[in-house]
């Protein structure tokens, strides 16, 4: 029985050692320029999904470009409510002139006009940018 516990402890220790860093994508001070901060330009800040049925899912991808002179670092992207799910965003620095995407899915749970926001925190000025999903949800 003692060997069984030792084997379980061994596997727990080995499986917890899986959080290894990829140092090639590490954020360093030379990527953050207070004098020339990156400029994030979104193709659209507001996505109007027009009219959808109650309970349906609205999918959209916000496309952006770094039009600044230094690398863009997106620290976090947060939804304003639990009905909006983020499918990820670029975790590596975006070089000047390069583009990226922030895909989102909105699950409609309330009838009437809906306007939901997503906050994007990056090394830009201002540091927080807001993106919006809006439209009418038809249903009872």
Entry keywords:
140 residues; mainly beta; Immunoglobulin-like; four-stranded mixed beta sheet; 1 helix; 11% helix
Structure, described:
The chain is 11% helix and 44% strand. The protein has 140 residues and is mainly beta. It has a single domain (36-138), classed as Immunoglobulin-like (Sandwich). The strands form 2 sheets. The chain has a 4-stranded antiparallel β-sheet, with no helix packed on it. A 4-stranded mixed β-sheet has the order 2-8-7-4, with no helix packed on it. The longest helix has 15 residues, at 2-16. The termini are far apart. The model is unreliable at 14-29 (pLDDT under 50).
Question: How is the secondary structure organized here?
Answer:
Blueprint: H1 2-16, E1 40-42, E2 46-53, E3 57-66, E4 74-79, E5 84-86, E6 99-107, E7 112-122, E8 128-138
Parallel strand pairs: 2-8
Antiparallel strand pairs: 1-3, 3-6, 4-7, 5-6, 7-8
- The CATH topology label is Immunoglobulin-like
Summed up, the helix count is 1
Taking the sheet with the most strands, its summary is: 4 strands, antiparallel
What is the total number of structural domains? 1
Order of helices and strands: HEEEEEEEE
CATH architecture: Sandwich
CATH superfamily: Immunoglobulins
Uncertain residue ranges = 14-29
Mean pLDDT across every amino acid position: 84
Label the overall shape: flat
How widely separated are the two ends? Answer: 59 Å
Alpha-carbon Rg, integer = 21 Å
Kindly name the structural category: mainly beta
Text of the CATH class: Mainly Beta
In helices, the fraction of residues equals 10-25%
Q: In percent, how much strand structure appears in the residues?
A: 35-45%
Main sheet: which strands, in order across? 1-3-6-5
Number of strands: 8
């Amino acid at each position: 029985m003692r060997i069984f516990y030792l084997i379980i402890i061994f596997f727990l220790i080995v499986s917890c050692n899986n959080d290894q860093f990829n140092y090639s994508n590490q954020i360093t001070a030379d990527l953050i320029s207070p004098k020339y901060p990156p400029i994030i330009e979104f193709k659209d800040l507001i996505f109007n999904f027009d009219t959808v049925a109650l309970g349906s899912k609205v999918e959209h991808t916000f496309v952006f470009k770094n039009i600044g002179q230094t690398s863009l670092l997106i620290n976090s992207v947060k939804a304003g409510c639990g009905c909006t799910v983020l499918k990820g965003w670029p975790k590596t620095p975006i070089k000047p002139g390069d583009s990226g995407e922030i895909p989102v899915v909105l699950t409609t749970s309330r009838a009437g006009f809906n306007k939901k926001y997503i906050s994007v925190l990056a090394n830009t000025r201002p540091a927080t940018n807001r993106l919006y999903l809006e439209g009418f949800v038809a249903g009872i």
